[in-house]
Amino acid sequence: MRLIFVFFLCLSANVIQAQSPCQSENHRAFDFWIGTWEVTLANTNQIAGYNHISLEMDSCVIKESWTGTKKSRGESFNHYEPSIDKWKQKWVDNGGNNLEFTGTIKNDTATFFATTLNPKNKIKITNRMVIAKKDKNTVIQIWDQQTPDGQWNTVFHGIYKRMSPLTLVNKEVQAVYDSFSVAYKTLNQDMLIDLYNDEAVYLPPGQKILKGKSEIARSFDATFENHINQKGELNIEFDILDRRIEGDVVIDSGYFTYRSKYPGKTETISKGKFLTILKKEKDGKWRFIYDSYNSAPMLKK
């Protein structure tokens, strides 16, 4: 009987280990970084970007997904390596950079080091990155580089503030509508069309269903060309009344106000309703996959 009990005890332990191989205290030392963060620069308080940190691969990998305000994007994959009692981080970004950090995490402070080469003079550069928990909603990240004379210079000092994932989605999607309005105001048709998915479906009133960027672009040709040639002005504003968020898909509905003005002529104002569906694509950008509207007068809310 005792042998049977011991057998089942060992079997249970093996099952638990197989189900959760990365649940030791060391494996969980970096969990304070998990979350969705707005990152500001410590010296200017300007927003540098947004960082989403998630637990992946059965809790064995901590994945970083960075989106900068100046179009930078990058990802890192972090894991604890028991054989050397160290943490490893692999960073890659859309600037062609890649770094491999090794470090330790103690008392809610991660300290990583990586060696790189200066692309111009091939001199080795030592990188030191510290990510430290200040409180449950604040994390500090400091990236220093050591010069050949031994001096450390800070190249990045960011303050992380925890935010709701939905707040980040709302910010990113609002930026699409803001870009839409800017494209109208600046008469930048290329900027406008880039907001649509390659296979987007466009349903303008009184016209056939249009599919793909090429067809959608042609539908805007006359409007933009006329306003450019006649030095006209275009403006469009959106009032989103309902938003449904399902992962990487957003469904919006609301009202729009369209304004067109040519020199010496009375401004034309059109109002109506719209329904759009946006999807976050592999490049990290949200784009319209469906865009439909009609020019019915805007109702009182």
Q: What's the number of extended β-strand segments?
A: 16
Quickly give the CATH architecture of the largest domain. Beta Barrel
How does the overall form come out from the CA principal axes? elongated
Helix content range of the residues, please?
Answer: 10-25%
- As for the number of domains, it is 2
CATH homology superfamily of the largest domain: Calycin beta-barrel core domain
Strand order of the largest sheet: 1-2-3-4-5-6-7-8-9-10
Largest sheet: 10 strands, antiparallel, barrel
How far is the N terminus from the C terminus? 75 Å
CATH topology of the largest domain: Lipocalin
How would you explain this protein's 3D organization?
With 301 residues, this protein is of the alpha+beta class. The protein has two domains: 23-163, Lipocalin; 166-294, Nuclear Transport Factor 2, Chain: A, CATH 3.10.450.50. 20% of the residues lie in helices and 50% in strands. It contains four helices and 16 strands. The strands form two sheets. Strands 1-2-3-4-5-6-7-8-9-10 form a ten-stranded antiparallel barrel. Strand 11 and strand 12 (210-211) form a beta hairpin.
Condensed summary:
By secondary structure, the protein is an alpha+beta fold. It has helices at 2-19, 165-185, 189-193, 213-229, and strands at residues 35-41, 47-56, 61-68, 73-81, 86-93, 98-106, 109-117, 124-135, 138-146, 152-163, 196-203, 210-211, 233-246, 249-261, 268-280, 286-294. The longest helix is centred in the middle third of the chain and has 21 residues, at 165-185.
